[in-house]
Fold:
Amino acid sequence: MRRREFGAGATAALLAATGCGAPEDAGVDDGGVDDSAVEGRGSRPGSPIVLTLLSHYASEPLKSALQSAVDAWNATHRRVKVRTTAVKFTDLLTTYMVRQAAGQGADILHPYCLWTGQLVQAGVLRPAPPEAVRRIRRDFSPAAVTASSVHGTVYGYPTEVQTYALFYNRRLLRAAGYSGPPRTWRELEEAAYRTARRDRHGNTLVQGFGLSRFDDSTVVGQTLALLAARGGSLLTPDGRWTAIDSAAGRDVFDLERRLIDRGASDTGSTLPKAFPSGQVAMAISAGWWTAVLRGLMGRAYRDVGVAPVPGLAAGDRGTLATGFLLGVNSRCRHPEAAWEFLRWLNAVPVPARARGGDNGRGRDGDRGGDSGRQVSVTRMSALQVSVGSMTGRADDMRALLGPGSGSDPNLGPFLDALRYADPEPNGPRAQRVKSLLRKNIETVWTGRRSVDEALRLATRQLNQELGR
Amino acid sequence: MPRIRRRFPWMSYALVGIGAVVTLVPFLDMLLTSFKGPGEYGRLPYRFLPEAFDLANYRDAIRQLNLPLLFRNSVIATGLVTGSILMTSSLAGYALAKLRFPGRDLIFRLVLSTMMFPPFIFFIPHFLILVHWPGAGGNDLLGRGGAGLTVSLAALVMPFLVSGFGIFLMRQFMISIPDEMLEAARIDGAGEFTVWWRIVMPQTKPVAVTLALLTFVNAWNEYIWALLVATANPRLMTLPVGIQMLQSYLDPDRTVPVMMAGLVLSILPILLLFLILQKHYIRGVMLSGLK
Amino acid sequence: MARCGRAGRGTARRGTAPRSAASSGTATAGRGPARAAQRRQTVIAYLFLTPTLLFFAVFLALPLLFAVLLAQSRWAGFNLADIEPVGLDNFTDLFAQGSTFLTPILTNTLLYAIGTVVIALSGSVVIANCINNLRFQGVWRTLYFLPIVTTVVAVGNVWKYMYEPGGLVNGALNALGLPSVAFLQDPDTALPSVVAVQAWASVGTAILILTAGLKSIPETYYEAAELDGADQFTIFWRITLPLLRPSLLFVCITQFITGLQSFALINVMTGDGGPGDATNVAALEIYQQAFTYGDWGVAGAAAFVLFLVIALITMAQLWLFRRKGEDA
Structure:
């Protein structure tokens, strides 16, 4: 799951505030550096408890969105202060592991749900207290709760849920003679071939269907979404073996391979750059990408449409849901304070204005701020929607994104997908499984292995990893 | 002593010239890309020269990088490592070259053998040793409970404070210092420390400069360990790591030139230092080939 | 003069040391009345060596011990008390069927090292020999040395972006009418592309060392050959190369070892060793297993295996070259 990271220097920029901090300073829980410069440490009596929060919200608009929520807490709570720190998503797991190993883990963590099993096994996450568990089970969608749990134990509030859908460029499809998005695999393939164009050097000018090979999450996410739409799944129901070597798995691998072989996909191009430049007709990605595209494309965003991931037959529905959870470090010295902050953020409804999809930067003038109406949702729900994401609180989402909310209509398909999406498996070796799967998918894309070989090898490697 | 060929060695000039172009072009591309404006990088067809020499990328690099912190960490860490290696190498080198004591050969062989071990074996143990350093960073005396030395700049430098190669280099050089000179000083009543500091050290200046330069460049450019330490504690970020962190994803048009600007700024000091002192550095590399 | 004065101060500080005994003792150790002086020198020697020995104890011996222990443990967590001995399980996992460690990771590691050595060595032999014929030798050598003093972050990123579709290399290809190549995205070209950069970055060192070797070849050999009417190529092949063998051996071994254990460049250029495992090498895998997945045991075992591989290859190389040297 790639995050919004343009302006990624933000990670380094965060350092700016504490340039003067003495390096010998032995602040044990100082997981990183923050914007709010110098603040007292929690150990002295009378001074406030300072909780650190480490997320991947390193760049705009996520950074400001989270910071303003935290600022609101800090303004109203004198005893417990929260400081945010952030790293790029690609560095997040390594950062959690290394900082935990170094005894400098942050108090509040915001991991990708895929890692829950690994972080629990490594003793990083603390189980949620009973009253939090009750609230989480009651208010959040089952897929989100499952993703935040290991063996039935809930480890945190599911803050963010992402579902995958088909992005398409209306202009490019229209130019090729299509009035709407493809509804079946056959239509998708046909449209991909008819929209693709190259120059005389063989450089791609337009890809019919863009495959992102940026990281594990984009490579695997789009593939698993296609797999689910085709009725397949990555693991067997008991989660002990992989089920990738099935008719559905074979179909997905075959489809991706054909798209590349026939010139509709160019895996050498950078999808997140090519799509907003109008060089890609279709691609599968998660809901957060809507906000990114709106930011990058300006008025050209009107060309972007979103539809459910096509299945074999029109009307077949299936996709992947991924997410993040907010949990507390097992080495946090003030767990009650941390859980209280999380409750305030994730479980207390407050009045908000339904204006979904506006990321607050006011880039597109055609959506006025006055179109919203008053609703009552949690701060996290408002936060996620403001940056084009969703939480697993279905009621909040309906209030914020449903008809009449004035939100980006492109978010509709992602909201609908909450009903039928499969959560991503999160066992202790899930990240390993995912990167092994990614590598096998890429060997198919690049033609290094045949689909059969790749499926066999992936099965062997994944099963070995799952058995560890 | 260059041998003077009878003919003009056009073949040699051609080959060396082509190689020089291949060597220099990436540096030029770095420099020129650092001036490219938004949307200019990555546009097809490729253009070597920027449309305008825009300094905005340098402003952005400086703003996003917090260069003062990165420079400070890099300078302190490099200085400590260089100083320590010079000190320990010359002390140990002197003992191994000019003093007689039981165990000398064994220790010399140990020093030689340390050069055999590849650094990757040590990453994990070094990291854990620093984390569990007794009494540091909130640890108890058994090294538990805290962050150990990973809260301080010590984490960046500790694993590099002594160099087997440095000791070897110093010893080889000191062996050639005539014993009579040391004898004379000892007869005058100088202690070994004085002999080392007043007589041996001044003579080893050429090799010390070389060793310092080699060490300095290596320490300045250290990446993998520095990356690990900075991951544990971003306040300990050094220049190379900080610039790598500029890597972005969604807007390469903009980020690549900014990153190139950061790279130009970070390699400039070391390139200047190298160009000024290249004689000593090159001698060091040649010496390392003669062991 | 000044030196004597300073030495005198040293004496004053030392007080009334038996100076004649001390000096005769060091000059001709073991000749008789110098036991005390000898003992004193031993103490001083160990005093001088203390920082070094302490360092080696803490940062060499202890880590080695720990590495051996770790390779035989499973440790999912961060508490030292949780380390659980599992014997050779980690090693069997590494070599289990379907494991990526043997192929492609170890194979890549070897290809990476071999490719680097071959390119850097052949390039540097030619260039060093050519430079030797030219004027301004120092300038040329300095120029070729620039990549060495440049941080791997700069080298890796510059080349990474030169390889991109909109970068310099593809720009040059297109200008020549050739199609673009997805150098780092295509698994067939990814490893060679990184190898080329590693070689590019290490040619400078090789040139310097070979130059030192070239300078030590006696001029008379060349004069004799030229009198015999040998052409340039024959001279290079029959005289230069054989006499350069010690330097070649040194370059070969050091570059090969460097190639086997380096992963910084790969980390910068392809991140986690992609596409697929096309550029994944052992040291990078160790790093990721340990610090991303927290599997210290498997990482430790992999490090152990790589270390053995390096030791074996080094010994084989030394043996091979030594034998050839005797033949010559």
Remarks:
- The first strand of chain A starts at residue 49 and ends at 55.
- Chain A touches chain C through 41 residues (CB under 8 Å).
- DSSP finds 18 helices and 15 strands in chain A.
